[in-house]
Amino acid sequence: TLYIGGGTPSAIPPELYGYILQFLPLENVTEFTVEANPEDVTPRWAATIKSLGVNRISMGVQSMIHTELESVGRRHTPADAVKAYLTLRSAGFDNISLDLIYGLPKQTPESWEYSLNKLLSLRPEHLSAYSLTYEEGTRLNAMRLAGKIAPATDDTVVAMYQKLCKLTEDAGYRHYEISNFALPDMYARHNSSYWDFSPYIGLGVAAHSFDGKNMRRSNPADIQLYIKAMESGQSFALTEQESVYDIYNDYVITGLRTHSGISNEKMQLRFGPELVQRLVNDMQKHIAAGNIEKSHGRWRIAPDSWLISDAILRDIII
After folding, report:
1. What pTM did the predictor assign?
2. Domains of the chain from N-terminus onward
3. What φ, ψ does residue 70 adopt, rounded to 5°?
4. 106 band by pLDDT with thresholds 50, 70 and 90
5. How far apart are CA 196 and CA 18, in angstroms?
6. C-alpha span between 309 and 292 (Å, rounded)
7. Nearest 10 degrees: Cα torsion 37, 42, 45, 48
8. Which of 53, 72, 235, 281 has its CA 20 to 30 A from that of 26?
């Protein structure tokens, strides 16, 4: 898989993609995703990247209510999002993922249901939905601290999540990870590789890499330093050699976020019987409470308990 994103790649001229791609091995790529903002999608942009081999688009819609988009500084309107989606379809894209956010300022369970129904009526192959988080240092968090916006209550967020699960299931989507939903056989292969410990390489500012064993590399998020390092031929990545306990925690956290969960057999092979027994012991409280279930040699967080997954995971990581 190949994924261009983690920022706003649709903001650059589409011709530059051709320049970038000449340096990458594309012969065996079966899923090639580019992230896009609705306001950047034009017929020319869509046709150009389609001609370069891109076969999947991930687009940040976030809401189908104009005032909600304005509250978080989005530049597009709901009409722009629909137009962009139809433009991508006209260009021949048959694998489109759309993002939504719940818990937005001014958002209600009713307006959230409206956004969901509007988006599901478009029938994208994939849907990602995330609860809004207020990150330190962002304009949104500064507005929250100044009392200019009020965060959604926990009860409101729970109601929205439950509505999300119900409407997507009714529409035929499989809830295969806490925040991800897909039509049959349309899971995001690239994202799924992060959850099953496949190796990957990240290129560019702030990109991360993993060798599939215990080595992680990260590029600092400083574009000036990155450019200087590239021009001088210096190494830019920070390297971290993870301990067996770090890898164990990563495997448990990412695996239990998914519908398929974690494999007892793979745990035994990677970590040995001692750590697996520790995991079983640490999970007992949540198994008894019905928060964790086991089936066909795999453990997973019960779908009804995904909203409290952070609390569950805190109890079982080392």
Report:
1. 0.92
2. 2-193 (3.30.750.200), 198-241 (no CATH), 247-316 (1.10.10)
3. -65, -35
4. confident
5. 31
6. 10
7. 140
8. 235
